[in-house]
Amino acid sequence: MIGFIGIGIMGSRMAARLIDAGHDLVIYNRTKSKADPLIEKGAKWADSPREVGQQADIVFTMLANPQAVDAVAYGQNSLLSGMKPGTLWIDSSTISPTQSVKLAESASQKEIRFLDAPVAGSTGPAEKGELIFFVGGAAADLEDAQPLLKILGKEVHHKGANGTGTAMKLVNNLMLGQTVAAFSEAVAFGESLGLDKEGIIKSLFAGPTAAPILHFKENKIMKEDFANADFKVNSIYKDMELASEEAYGHGFALPLSNMVKAFYGLCQQEGKGDYDFATIYDFLKKK
């Protein structure tokens, strides 16, 4: 039995792929209504993280923020209190390396194995099984997880010991936030010079600076439709803040990232925290 905790934008799609691949799932989510489509597909509902842990041999968590992960791990009816010795916990949430190491240590005290395995990719890749996993933890534990990760993703990058998977995810999302912000500013600048937006994007994509993520954001920027989020402002802001905090702890400055992070914070202040983070284009363009 596989457990899955966190049935949000990403978790719901990942869990659905596991069900479609023939696996039995027991699931939990703070808001049960979000889990109803998976229950209709055959997933078993649990009333708490503890109940998931009691029934599953492998548990995935895909949660929104560090506080949610700690609440599941240590809170009332916690996951760690339910999991059996020898079972495997795969945390795909985006948290700090420091927190991942702490979770791994807490799991180890109960003879529970732990992998930090956050992902690169949004809703489309999650639905298609094309996520990229950044994994920290023991190679033997990753070997046991591989059959499931291959259902969910197209690549698995083992970065080293616990904490290195989440470290790589912060590195990835640091660049992600900067890339979309730089592209948005460039397009908005071109428009201010009287250039056609579609033509600007076409020319940028023909050059050497167009990262794959920008092709995914082209339609949103063209239509200026950011309310239907693939990846929220709240999420990129949180991830860049986690990177900033981790960098501070390691004595490393992030001058460019901290400036870009502040712009996403301003988008939050405008009430657009739940919008797609490409809404930074709307924030930057000349009104």
UniProtKB/TrEMBL annotation:
Q: What's the name of the protein? A: NAD(P)-dependent oxidoreductase
Keyword Oxidoreductase assigned to the entry: answer is: yes
6-phosphogluconate dehydrogenase NADP-binding domain span: 2-158
Query: Which InterPro entries does the UniProt record give?
Result: 6-PGluconate_DH-like_C_sf (IPR008927), 6PGD_dom2 (IPR013328), 6PGDH_NADP-bd (IPR006115), HIBADH-like_NADP-bd (IPR029154), HIBADH-related (IPR015815), HIBADH-related_NP60_sf (IPR051265), NAD(P)-bd_dom_sf (IPR036291)
Superkingdom field = Bacteria
Task: Cite the 3-hydroxyisobutyrate dehydrogenase-like NAD-binding domain residue spans from the record.
Answer: 163-283
Alphabetically, the GO molecular function entries are: oxidoreductase activity
